[in-house]
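Q: Got a minute? One more chain.
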Amino acid sequence: MIPAIINGREICPASANGGADCAAGAAVLCRSRGYQSGRSLAVDATEKCSAKLLIPGRAREPGDCRTENFVTRAWCQ
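A: Always. Here it is, folded:
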């Protein structure tokens, strides 16, 4: 296959040190399109929160939300 820039959305799994491993996310995105490997070119981050935050009057506590990172564009080969 000819190398290409692929757009998509694949989560970056947590690495051993707790950070996001977007190299692994890029590899999964590329393999899903038939390529063998890839490198992330663009990453997006979102905050995922517990439904507990919807309770009126409840204060936000540490651990209620976590940041999730996604590979949105990868160079695949």
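A: The chain has a mean pLDDT of 93.
Q: Perfect, thanks.
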